[in-house]
Amino acid sequence: MYSINNLNKHYSNGEISHQVLNDITVTIGTGEFLAILGPSGSGKSTFLNVLGGLDREFEGNVLFMGHDLGSYNEKQMVAFRRENIAFIFQEYHLLPTLTVYENVKVGQYLNKKNSSVDEILEKVGLKEHKHKFPNQLSGGQKQRVAIARALIKGPKVIFCDEPTGALDSSTAKMIMKLLLDLNKEHNVTVIMVTHNQELVKISNRYIRMMDGRILSTIHNKQTSDLD
Ligand code: ADP
Ligand code: ADP
């Protein structure tokens, strides 16, 4: 899905230049469930933003299904994101004045594939809550809405930036299990930044980042199921 070669990125502030991504070379397979770990400030979010087409200021080669993201202009990047990419964040980013149903419907406007809101809500276990507003939902339920809104686009890749960071551990487990099921069922590639060690166990592979570099890439021989 992704072939990344010698990816570099730095921020300049006058004379001071700060290297945020440092010579990253890695490939990411279709259908993979990849976790990214690393301390705060190690470049994880920046890496996600480059892969997801939110950040075009980088050096090196980032190929998505053979297409060079570095060659895209802003308009092509918007099209690339709309066609292929969904993001899930720790803070959910739901629209407070819209119901669960309507929040997911927003995602549907962005795709041409004809999946139904009700079907997706059933899949994430929110069918009976579809008329509620975000402030009537628990944290786990809100994250399910965000997942439903991502999924209805029919993305090839879902990026998750600390998706369970605001959730208690048993709710976090349920959200993880849902993402894993969707990854398997839809063959959608999931690339996730996390501190959650539990989650790392279910990934196919995890990358450790430090100071903008990949320290290690570890394959899980046997991905454990969450119970
Ligand atoms: P992580 O997600 O691992 O916490 P980030 O990718 O958010 O790391 O940040 C990596 C580094 O880049 C940090 O040192 C951060 O301060 C710096 N950084 C992020 N955004 C900017 C920016 N807009 N301008 C300057 N430095 C930035
Ligand atoms: P889709 O499921 O593809 O979005 P529709 O918009 O036609 O298709 O709606 C499907 C079902 O959802 C129908 O049963 C409809 O009554 C119900 N529905 C439509 N709009 C809303 C809404 N804003 N809130 C809750 N349910 C809705």
TrEMBL record:
Belongs to the ABC transporter superfamily. It comes from the Bacteria. The keyword ATP-binding applies. Keywords: ATP-binding, Nucleotide-binding, Transport. It comes from Paenibacillus crassostreae. Residues 2-227 form the ABC transporter domain. GO terms for cellular component: membrane protein complex. Pfam families: ABC_tran (PF00005). GO terms for molecular function: ATP binding; ATP hydrolysis activity; transmembrane transporter activity. This is ABC transporter ATP-binding protein.
